[in-house]
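Module 6 notes. Inverse folding takes a fixed backbone as the condition and produces residue identities as the prediction. Think of it as a translation problem where the source language is geometry and the target language is the twenty amino acids. Below is one complete input and output pair. Work through it position by position during the lab.
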């Protein structure tokens, strides 16, 4: 278990460092609309790390996915705790490196790439209520896309690379939406990663500590809501049908009038028997 926690720590450190530095680089690139570059570089940063880490630990690299997996019963409470501690330590290491290497003026300008809602105290940004709503809705959308396809059955059907690509694209999409929907320059976008937001606040302090609770409460509320929704979905019947098709791969079906299904496997057997 501790090896998995260490792996989560290292993977989270790499992810947080890559996301922080590349997103800041997008805004420093001088492009007319640098926000358009953000989802692209989120994909470039996240995809290879997911491919490398999913086979080892499940590729959580985020307390949100760990908490959702714990609610589902995919990981035990003890393993989830080890994962979250490792993720927080990894994020802390990443921001310590960012602070040690980043130009001071850039670090102050972007608040070290941390999670802020008020634009550094200059009166810009959004309120805590708006930030909470965005954290909840964006995290829920990410979970709705990521959790089903991360199941073992879906991974076998789609392949690891496809699954990781879909999750990375979804992550970039919700970040881009959160950065543009408010129209407020002082708001840096949804956090989606409580460990990243916490680590930045611990290293940079200042305005990052303001309303920091929204970056934990919003995502965890989304996890609970998604878990409740997943319990209401008619999954048993769907899984039963998929199991039947796996047991009988030669079963061919075609639809007649749009509503009736005709099984022709028995027809084939009878025809062969008559011969």
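Target side of the pair, the amino acids:
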């Amino acid at each position: 278990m501790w090896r998995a926690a260490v792996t989560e720590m290292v993977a989270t450190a790499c992810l947080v460092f890559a996301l922080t530095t590349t997103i800041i680089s997008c805004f420093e690139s001088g492009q007319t609309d640098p926000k358009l570059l953000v989802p692209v570089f989120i994909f470039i940063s996240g995809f290879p790390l997911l491919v490398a880490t999913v086979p080892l630990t499940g590729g959580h690299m985020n307390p949100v996915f760990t908490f959702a997996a714990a609610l589902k019963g995919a990981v035990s409470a003890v393993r989830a705790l080890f994962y979250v501690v490792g993720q927080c330590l990894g994020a802390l290491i990443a921001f310590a490196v960012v602070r040690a290497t980043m130009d001071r003026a850039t670090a102050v300008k972007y608040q070290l790439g941390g999670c802020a809602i008020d634009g550094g105290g200059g009166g810009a940004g959004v309120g805590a209520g708006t930030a909470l709503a965005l954290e909840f809705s964006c995290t829920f959308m990410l979970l709705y896309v990521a959790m089903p396809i991360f199941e073992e059955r879906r991974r076998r059907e789609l392949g690891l690379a496809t699954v990781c690509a879909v999750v990375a694209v979804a992550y970039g999409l919700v970040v881009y939406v959160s950065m543009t929907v408010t129209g407020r320059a002082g708001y840096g976008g949804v956090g989606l990663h409580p460990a990243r937001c916490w680590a930045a606040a611990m290293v940079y302090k200042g305005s990052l500590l303001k309303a920091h609770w929204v970056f934990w409460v919003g995502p965890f509320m989304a996890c609970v809501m998604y878990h409740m929704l997943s319990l209401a979905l008619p999954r048993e019947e769907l899984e039963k049908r998929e199991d039947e098709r796996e047991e009988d791969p030669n079963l061919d079906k075609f639809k007649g009038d749009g509503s009736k299904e005709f099984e022709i496997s028995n027809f084939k057997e009878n025809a062969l028997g008559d011969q």
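Reference fact for the lab report: The first helix runs from residue 2 to 27.
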